[in-house]
Design a protein that fits this description.
- Chain A: It comes from Esox lucius.
- Chain A: Belongs to the CCM2 family.
- Chain A: This is PID domain-containing protein.
- The complex is a heterodimer of chains A (456) and B (195).
- Chain A is of the alpha+beta class and 456 residues long.
- Chain B is mainly α and 195 residues long.
- Chain B has 2 domains: 51 residues, no CATH class; 128 residues, Up-down Bundle (Four Helix Bundle (Hemerythrin (Met), subunit A)), CATH 1.20.120.
- The longest helix of chain B has 28 residues.
- Chain B is globular.
- Classes of the chains: A alpha+beta (456), B mainly alpha (195).
- At the A-B interface, helix 5 and helix 6 of A face helix 7 and helix 8 of B.
Chain lengths: 456, 195
């Protein structure tokens, strides 16, 4: 059909309108997208200020192809062939996106705590992976495709290996027979991302490398601190909470506070520092010397050290929540409830804090507590770096010997660690009162930190 | 006469070694006495010699590398297993600390070294605690004080590491490690003196 100039065929008008509409929409979408939360990085190694990863986050644009689950754990993330074979199979079976379009556009948000993936449009969360669940990061260039693959833990941990599982013989050496006779293998996930070019891929890998450095450096120092703490607080006497050498307690307190850069409650309240990261403030003496004087140096130091740790790891609101949970436990809540709530409060990145509670758990609940630690992967350093010999032993729980819980049961029947000494009820009461005071202090600290936050 | 017999005869009859015990031993003894009276004197002498000879070394780092060697003065000479363990654990800790200059520039290896140091500190303290539990001494306060000092310097070492990971100044780590080695030696010396 011939058309006159200026007149557009109705067919073309409808067709082109649709095309133009889609282009326009895509363009509008691009212009509507928010700016990413990003920072300039020092070249050539893309160094970023660690504080940004600890107290802030950085975003990068990626394409999310998908996540493969139940991947055999023995997959070598450095093997281009192995990884690409898995990805190719997954793309063929539509487990991963084939063609890359704007539909896969996503944002990866990096911090020292986790890797979070959200859709670029709509910001709906795709998934979140804690840093300690990331085993490896690989960059694979496949022609024009630049893939960044994260090998991560899978929640279930083990699953029956299907008969189609490659390298079954390898899995048989690693796995064990389940009750049904299926071979169990450790499995992992592969999070598959694509970026625009090699530079973007290297930048992402180097950022993750820096995150690992920060996290594992912190974990290693924490491990060192715990080792010193354990060795220092292991009782040198026969599991007595009470020292008959009152003068040495003063020396110890001064020694501990003079050199180490730790907080005290008074110091932190005066400084008004509500940042979770530790800083040096001059320690000031505790005011409760009268009550502390009746407890041994060991018990006092245990409490002080744990409070110090909480101060650096928890926010004010979380400290209040901790105090509430402790209060509930001491007033009759079950150890199971206490553990579950604390685990929820601390989250994955801080679950190691549960280890510090060991001395305060009464003997009758200690078995449940230890089992709980094992199930969440913090007992004996699992989930947290141990030394090359896997050494981390439970210390004698001297502080729990006379801890009371809400049921009022007082320990002291002499069956703690083989000691023949009995703890008098008054000693248990003193300890109980100390715990109450500490709980109140923790709550007060949380409140005061809130108040400092709003004060201009 | 065999070669070995000739060697032995030479050694026993030679006068050359007389210089060692006739001249140097008294000098060493005098230096030790002088050091007791004026702590730091030996270090000053060494530094001056190095300066005079224009030897460019990092003294603190070198001291750390050499500090792992056993010193007779700091070994507990009791046969019981607990005291032998004490010597062993102290030696192990000093060995690992002395490796810091070799490992500090490789982050992954350095983190592993720190973990090993942590375990070594824990094992030494456990051994000290075992001795405390098993043996009751009259002069226990001195031992407990020394243990507390050791813990204090261990914590200081940990704090120094935290600072190092921020500012990258390795020299402070070397200094702190040297102090920790010195405290380890003092623990042994205290046990040796008290028991």
């Amino acid at each position: 059909m011939e058309t006159e100039p200026g007149i557009v065929s109705p067919f073309k008008r409808v067709f082109l309108k649709g095309e133009k509409g889609r282009d326009k929409k895509a363009q509008e979408k691009t212009t509507e997208r928010r700016a990413l939360h990003t920072f300039s990085l020092s070249l050539p190694d893309h160094r970023i200020d660690p504080d940004i990863l600890l107290n802030d986050y950085i975003e990068k644009e990626v394409k999310y192809l998908g996540q493969l689950t139940s991947v055999p754990g023995y997959l070598n993330p450095s093997s281009r062939t192995e990884v690409l074979q898995l990805i190719d199979n997954a793309r063929k079976s539509h487990q991963l996106a084939g063609q890359l379009t704007s539909e896969q556009d996503a944002v990866v948000s990096l911090s020292a705590y986790n890797v979070k993936l959200v859709w670029r449009d709509g910001e709906d969360i795709i998934l979140r992976v804690p840093i300690h669940d990331i085993a490896a990061v690989s960059y694979i260039r496949d022609d024009s495709l630049h893939l960044v693959v994260l090998k991560t833990a899978q929640e279930a941990g083990v699953s029956p290996c299907p008969s189609t599982c490659p390298d079954l013989s390898k899995s048989m050496t690693l796995g064990s027979l389940s009750e049904s006779g299926a071979v169990l293998v450790e499995v992992c996930c592969l999070l598959v991302l694509a970026v625009d070019n090699k530079a973007a891929a290297e930048e992402l890998c180097l950022l993750l490398s820096q995150v690992f450095q920060i996290v594992y450096t912190e974990s290693t120092i924490d491990f060192l601190d715990r080792a010193i703490f354990d060795g220092a607080t292991t009782p040198t006497r026969h599991l007595s909470l009470y020292s008959d050498d009152s003068s040495s307690k003063v020396d110890v307190k001064e020694a501990f506070e003079a050199e180490a850069s730790t907080f005290s409650f008074q110091g932190s309240l005066e400084a008004g520092d509500n940042s979770p990261s530790p800083s040096s403030t001059p320690a000031s003496p505790q005011t409760k010397t009268a009550s502390e004087g009746e407890l041994s140096t060991t018990a006092t130091e245990l409490l002080q050290d744990y409070m110090t740790t909480l101060r650096t790891k928890l926010s004010s609101h979380e400290i209040q929540q901790f105090a509430t949970l402790l209060h509930e436990y001491r007033n009759g809540a079950s150890i199971h409830e206490f553990c579950i709530n604390l685990r929820q409060l601390y989250g994955d990145s801080r679950k190691f804090l549960l280890l510090g509670l060991r001395p305060f758990i009464p003997e009758k609940d200690s078995q449940h507590f230890e089992n709980f630690l094992e199930t969440i992967g913090v007992k004996d350093g699992r989930g947290i770096i141990t030394d090359s010999f896997g050494r981390y032993r439970r210390t004698a729980s001297s502080a729990s010997d006379s801890t009371t819980n809400g049921n009022g049961a007082v320990r002291g029947d002499g069956d703690v660690g083989g000691s023949d000494e009995r703890l008098a009820p008054s000693e248990g009461d003193e300890w109980d009162r100390m715990i109450s005071d500490i709980s109140n202090d923790i709550e007060a600290l949380g409140v005061s930190m809130d108040q400092e936050g709003v004060t201009p | 006469m065999t070669m070995e017999e000739m060697r032995i005869e030479t050694e026993t009859n030679s006068m050359v070694s007389m210089t060692l015990y006739a001249v140097m031993y008294p000098v060493f003894n005098e230096v030790m006495c002088a050091e007791r009276e004026n702590p730091g004197l030996t270090q000053d002498i060494i530094m001056k010699i190095l300066e005079k000879k224009n030897v460019q070394i990092n003294y603190t780092e070198s001291l750390l590398r050499m500090a792992a060697d056993d010193v007779e003065e700091f070994l507990v000479d009791r046969p019981e297993q607990e005291f032998q363990d004490l010597n062993d654990k102290a030696r192990a800790l000093k060995n690992i600390l002395s490796k810091i200059p070799d490992e500090i520039n490789d982050r992954v290896r350095f983190l592993q070294t720190i973990k090993d140091i942590a375990s070594a500190i824990k094992e030494l303290l456990d051994t000290v605690n075992n001795v405390f539990k098993k043996y009751q001494y009259q002069n226990r306060r001195a031992l407990e004080h020394q243990k507390k000092e050791f813990v204090k310097y261990s914590k200081s070492f940990s704090d120094t590491l935290k600072t190092y990971f921020k500012d990258g100044k390795a020299i402070n780590v070397f200094i702190s490690a040297n102090r920790l080695i010195h405290q380890t030696n003092l623990i042994l010396q205290t046990f040796k003196t008290v028991i």
